[in-house]
Amino acid sequence: MAHLYYDETLTPETLKPGAALTITGEEARHAVSVARLRTGEQVLIGNGGGEIAVTRVSDVVKGSAPAFTAVVSELQTPAPSGLKTVLVQALAQGDRDTRAVEQTTEFGVNAIIPWAASRSVSLWQNQTKQQKGQQKWQRIAREAAKQSLRAVIPEVQRIHTTAELARLCGEAGTLALVLDPRAENRLSRVLGQLPAATDTLLLIVGPEGGITETETTSLTAAGAVGVRLGDTVLRTSSAGAAALAVANTVQEHW
After folding, report:
1. Which residues of the chain, if any, have pLDDT below 70?
2. Model pLDDT, residue 22
3. Which end of the chain is more exposed for a tag (fewer CB within 10 A), N or C?
4. Which pLDDT score, from 0 to 100, does residue 2 have?
5. What architecture does CATH give domain 84-250?
6. 3-class secondary-structure state, position 192
7. pLDDT for residue 195
8. Can you tell me the distance from the alpha carbon of 189 to that of 226, in angstroms, rounded to the nearest whole number?
9. How far apart are CA 57 and CA 158, in angstroms?
10. What are the distances in angstroms from CA 48 to CA 220, 222, 232?
């Protein structure tokens, strides 16, 4: 299977068949030094915004400034999957939240929103930490998208408060689902009865200690629906991915 490399500066015009693309920087270093790319190999080159070019490598430069050039043979523009899925992931301890970012990206999430929940142990306490945290999550999403051969890299948005999430829950066309093991509604049942006007699915995952009653009340009052995945309690690192798997199955993406 061909490897995928990203260059976000590329446009549909520069990815036309016959165009010669030169990749440098970290992407080229990985291709040349780690993947041992050779002339004549087929590789995929995408811009992370929806276009992927099927290319054939015509030149490889090794050394301290590695690079490779590939000629486009075909431009692919995969159709959007329909319902937009957004993961709202509460900040969590250790690498549990970043594992959620990685897994949900592999499962096809469209966007990710970090959430400063009441019981979040890890906190991005100032603007500098918020920017660094957002950038870290974006890097992880980019690498996971590349591994999964995705045409679009999910956008990691700025950190949100509960009040800001509540406003999102009330937007037209949005169905917000709070993953809560105490909820009566099963996720599969709710997804099987989606209102026709729904175009965005907001999946809200709490931290290790769970979502507080106050947060649940605030979100449901704004229009969110509490759902459970089953009879077991999942970790914050895996709940979002499990919910996406259910959504993908119900929508027949899998």
Report:
1. none
2. 97
3. N
4. 83
5. 3-Layer(aba) Sandwich (3.40)
6. coil
7. 86
8. 12
9. 37
10. 34, 33, 36
The CA radius of gyration of the chain, in Å to the nearest whole number, is 20
Residue with tokens 């929103």: 113
Query: How many Cβ atoms are within 10 Å of 155's Cβ, its own excluded?
Result: 13
Contact between 81 and 107 under an 8 Å Cβ cutoff? The reply is: no
- Give residue 15's Cα distance to chain centre: 24
213 to 5, 82, 175, 209, 239: CA distances (angstroms) = 44, 33, 20, 12, 19
Longest Cα–Cα distance in the chain:
60
Contact between 47 and 78 (Cβ < 8 Å): no
The answer to whether 117 and 215 are in contact (CB under 8 A) is yes
**What is residue 85's three-state secondary structure?**
strand
Least Cα distance to 202 among 230, 235, 232, 179 occurs for 179
Residue 6 CA to residue 150 CA, distance in Å, equals 10
CA–CA separation, 38 vs 35, rounded Å? 9
Residue that has been written with the tokens 């992407």 in this structure: 27
Domain spans in the chain, listed from the N-terminal domain onward? 4-76, 84-250
Which residue type, as a one-letter code, is found at position 112? I
> Which residue type, as a one-letter code, is found at position 217?
T
Tell me, what's the pLDDT at 125?
87
Instruction: Tell which CATH classification among 2.40.160.40, 3.40.50.10090, 2.40.240.20, 3.20.20.140 matches the domain 4-76.
Output: 2.40.240.20
